[in-house]
Design brief:
Structural class of chain B: mainly beta
Oligomer: heterodimer
Number of strands of chain B: 31
Structural class of chain A: mainly beta
Strand content of chain B: 35-45%
Helix content of chain B: under 10%
Number of helices of chain A: 3
Shape of chain A: globular
Helix content of chain A: under 10%
Distance between the termini of chain B: 53 Å
Largest sheet of chain A: 10 strands, mixed
Number of strands of chain A: 20
Order of helices and strands of chain A: EHHEEEHEEEEEEEEEEEEEEEE
Shape of chain B: elongated
Radius of gyration of chain A: 18 Å
Strand content of chain A: 35-45%
């Protein structure tokens, strides 16, 4: 993993406005030996490599069950369970599976895992290696919520979406922060698009490096965004413990409903989750 | 075609050698290895014909439908222009052509044929694709009913399995007729093969994904149809193309009952049940066909009556009258499936299953059978019969107006009870037309087989029958 520390300067392409990018190609090529630091935090705090078959490690992972309020606030269509059909560790992967089935009044089932009360941390490098599902209305995410959410309701508690993905846009993922005054449609977000590749045909590493007054977002070896207090139009709430969530939603306002062409079941494979400081 | 075969073989052998080398020691190929490759030029038409590209319109098409347009283009200096004719255009009924490179190209490095296109009006292009070389068309691909608008749009036609295209001549083809009778113009530009890297989630299918079950006999053949490959594209759209059988690998679960060749033709060779499945590039196709082979087929007796005395509706022994259908699928009460869909060693046979009633109709034109004396049909009931069963044969005449309804139709029925029928052997019926007691016989148009009388206490048990040699005679 040592090689992950230093990477090629893809960051330049991503941070510069698009209209400049074309003109800069020559410069990028001419300085291709330059190495950009994508990650700096390397002291492992926790890791789950998902190497033990069966239910996920209960010391680290809990579950949200059911439909929440208004489909977890997004009019999502699935019923979350912790049944092995929806969540299991097998063949070295955490496997979250969305199934089309009638279940407790919902038309789909899936799973949402979270480390709330089990692992919470302020700052650090949070990353997971994931092969994403696909299709209209499929909405997987690897994300974090402020651990004080029970007393400091969303969006006040803050949310960091390390990876969100619309199954109908197989080449594009998004990294986002939500907080007071910049949540939902006003959240601070940036997408990252793969060229000549897509997120549902292979594994990709999704991560953030989060420190005092910054969150850096990266995919594989590409640092594609940095968000600082200057970028948010409200209070910076990313200075307290957060916990991790991994889930696959079906439908909801972010993606729209599945259609007749959406293939079920859909499985999200998570190779590992690692946290560094 | 000999050359092609030998080239393909040569390439395959060399590829095999490459695999051995690379997997053996993971070193680079030595400079001595001779690659049997063809040009991998991805360009078909950018601003003009790419090297080796030819143009051949289809026979019967508007031969001058294609031109190079230097005024309208998406990029560069020219585009391909296709003028689809109006209905009735004396120069051709439709626009269609192939664009081959007869030297062949190696397209294994690409995953799609892409182009930009627009039209002078919104339209649906019947067929557009590649793999058509006016030869074997072994790896033919068609995108059917491609919707096109008046704005430049990029289209992607995925390659079902690029590894098969080591020597492809048919680089592009299309066929399109008038829209609602009117001709219009299509422009295509930047036509080329690309390695997009985003053509993913292959979902091949046979019989369009249907799991079919059919009964058949030794000696009959069944052609696999509905062969498609579907990919999800970067746009999130699923793109389905019709793919030639050669892209698929077919498999029979029981070679003693049925075999399948690489053209997707199934031969029934013995008794028993065989399930035919397929894979495309290692991915299992959805859909299948399960064949229940009933063994040797005993044909109905071959008719010997003089053709001059016969009006034949369905027989290989005579020239048949025009028939509209052998199963009208009359909704909502009819359950009968099947029709004239069996061919055993060249002998065409009608097979009906789930029979309650079914009609064969021949109204274009109706038939004057007033000079005939009898109706003949050979029937085989493929199941046990109980005495309360029956099978009725009904003839329908459309009357002087020659059309269904109008108050002048007449029909008559002759009923055979189960006690007079036998199972699993041909029953030859010669029924005097007088027994049908028809008011008119000058506009005969329908023959019904009926095994249910529609009453609640009657469940048809005669459900599977074979029918052959339906004719009127004197």
């Amino acid at each position: 993993m040592n090689q992950r520390d230093q990477f090629k300067p893809e960051m330049h392409k991503k941070l510069w406005p698009r209209f400049l990018a074309a003109g800069m190609v020559a410069i990028i090529l001419s300085c291709s030996d330059y190495e950009q630091t994508v990650t700096t935090l390397n002291q492992l705090v926790i890791q789950d490599e998902f190497d033990t078959n069966g239910a996920p490690n209960s010391a680290l992972w809990g579950y949200d069950i059911g439909t929440g309020q208004n489909g977890w606030g997004n009019y999502e269509l699935q019923y979350y369970t912790n049944r092995p059909e929806n969540v299991t560790v097998k063949d070295g992967f955490l496997q979250i599976t969305a199934i089309k089935e009638s279940f407790n009044g919902s038309a789909y089932t899936s799973a949402r895992l979270l480390t709330k009360g089990k692992f919470e941390q302020t700052y650090g490098r949070f990353e997971a290696r994931i092969k994403l599902p696909w299709g209209q209305g499929i909405w997987p995410a690897f994300w974090m919520l402020g651990a004080d959410i029970d007393t400091n309701p969303w969006p006040g508690a803050g949310e960091i979406d390390i990876m969100e993905f619309r199954g109908q846009q197989p080449t594009i993922m998004l990294g986002t922060v939500h907080g007071p005054g910049y949540s939902g449609g006003q959240s601070i977000s940036k997408s990252y698009e793969l060229k000549n590749d897509r997120f549902d045909t292979g594994f990709h590493v999704f991560g953030i490096e989060w420190g005092k007054e910054y969150v850096n977002f990266y995919v594989d070896n590409v640092l594609y965004n940095q968000i600082t207090p200057a970028d948010v139009p409200g209070e910076w709430v990313f200075n307290k413990p957060f916990y991790i969530l991994i889930n696959m939603a079906v439908g909801g306002s972010f993606v729209g409903s599945p259609n007749s062409e959406t293939v079920f079941p859909q499985t999200m494979l998570v190779d590992y989750v690692r946290v560094y400081k | 075609m000999k050359n092609i075969n030998s080239y393909s073989l040569k390439a395959a052998v060399l590829l095999g050698m490459i695999v051995v080398f690379t997997s053996g020691c993971e070193r680079n190929l030595s400079g001595d290895v001779e690659f049997a490759t063809y040009p991998a030029n991805p360009e078909v038409f950018i601003d003009g014909f790419s090297g080796g590209l030819n143009y051949f319109p289809f026979g019967g098409s508007k031969l001058d439908a294609f031109s190079v347009d230097t005024n309208v283009k998406y990029l560069g200096s020219a585009s391909m222009r296709f003028d689809v004719p109006n209905v009735g255009d004396p120069s051709g009924a439709y626009a269609g052509a192939i664009f081959p490179d007869n030297g062949g190209r190696d397209l294994t490095g690409y995953d799609a044929l892409t182009f930009w296109a627009k039209a002078s009006q919104g339209a649906t292009i019947n067929e557009i694709g590649f793999g058509n070389d006016f030869g074997e068309n072994k790896f033919l691909v068609s995108l059917n009913n491609m919707s096109i608008s008046t704005g430049w749009t990029k289209y992607t036609i995925p390659i079902p399995d690029p590894t098969r295209l080591i020597f492809e001549k048919g680089l592009f083809w299309y066929a399109e007729g008038p829209e609602d009778g009117n001709g219009y113009t299509i422009w295509i530009d930047e036509l080329k093969y690309e390695k997009l890297g985003t053509v993913a989630q292959p979902r091949p299918a046979m019989f369009n994904g249907e799991d079919k079950i059919v009964q058949s006999f030794i000696g009959s053949n069944i052609t696999i149809t509905g062969l498609t490959q579907t990919f999800n594209l970067a746009s999130g759209q699923n793109q389905t193309v019709t793919a030639a059988p050669a892209y698929f690998t077919f498999k029979s679960s029981n070679l003693n009952a049925a075999k399948v060749n690489e053209q997707g033709v199934i031969s029934i060779v013995g008794s028993g049940t065989a399930k035919i499945t397929a894979t495309l590039a290692g991915v299992a196709a959805i859909g299948s066909i399960t064949i229940e082979s009933l063994g040797n087929f005993v044909a109905a007796p071959t008719p010997t009556r003089n053709a001059a005395n016969v009006i034949s509706v369905f027989s290989d022994a005579y020239t048949n009258i025009p028939v509209d259908f052998y199963n009208g699928f009359f909704a909502p009460f009819q359950t009968t499936l099947g029709g004239a869909n069996l061919n055993v060693n060249g002998n065409n046979i009608i097979q009906y299953t789930n029979l309650n009633f079914v009609a064969t109709e021949f109204k274009n034109p109706t038939q004057n059978v007033s000079q005939m004396t009898h109706f003949h049909v050979d029937i085989q009931i493929q199941e046990a019969i109980v005495p309360s069963d029956f099978l009725s044969i009904q003839l329908g005449d459309f009357g002087p107006d020659g059309a269904f309804g109008g108050g002048d139709d007449s029909s008559g029925t002759v009923k055979f009870l189960g006690s007079a029928l036998s199972s699993n052997q041909w029953i030859s019926l010669d029924i005097p037309l007088a027994n049908f007691a028809l008011a008119n016989k000058n506009n005969m148009a329908q023959i019904f087989f009926i095994s249910a009388d529609g009453t609640s206490n009657n469940t048809p048990t005669i459900s599977t029958i074979l029918v052959d040699n339906m004719y009127f005679y004197k």
